[in-house]
């Protein structure tokens, strides 16, 4: 029992097992969701992976679906910021330049958040959390398609490919990185981002036909 006025403060209550905070639990859950599948993974599996008890996991999260929601938000939040910034008109910057920038930065986001982006690309709308994530993805596609349309109107991009299709193809190329890119591999993120941006926009640039 702590005595009032004691010179020695009472020790703080530890949040779960030492060394495992909410971020560590989320990382373990995402790794298991990707390896075993979300439906096949239980909170007990996450606890076992970390050497914790289930109550220790529930000290940090309310449910397995809560873990899924946090993971999908991690994948979507920075990408949403990138697309939102690119969608704003800026003095002295064309839509074409902002579109190139959003592709480059999207690669950087994927590399930095590859496990959660991988999980995002596997969701199929089987729960409210998944449906909400898919709706966020749809809105990002719409905003990117609008930016493509602006670049077409400027005359910077060819006009014979529908902007919504261009948007899907752009994100499709970026998202394909989850299948093969490894942070410890041969290519730095900046190299990959530059290569994708160059390939995409050389193919989309307006030429005499």
Automatic annotation (TrEMBL):
Enumerate the PANTHER family for this protein: HTH-TYPE TRANSCRIPTIONAL REGULATOR BETI, HTH-TYPE TRANSCRIPTIONAL REGULATOR RUTR
Query: Which keywords fit this entry according to its UniProt record?
Result: DNA-binding, Transcription, Transcription regulation
Q: Which residues bind DNA?
A: 42-61
Which InterPro entries does its entry note? Answer: DNA-bd_HTH_TetR-type_CS, Homeodomain-like_sf, HTH-type_TetR-like_transc_reg, HTH_TetR, KstR2_TetR_C, Tet_transcr_reg_TetR-rel_C_sf
| Ranges of residues in domain HTH tetR-type | 19-79
Query: Which Gene3D superfamilies has this protein been placed in?
Result: Homeodomain-like, Tetracycline Repressor, domain 2
Give a yes or no for keyword Transcription in this entry.
yes
Spell out the protein name for this chain. AcrR family transcriptional regulator
Which GO molecular function terms does the record list? Answer: DNA-binding transcription factor activity; transcription cis-regulatory region binding
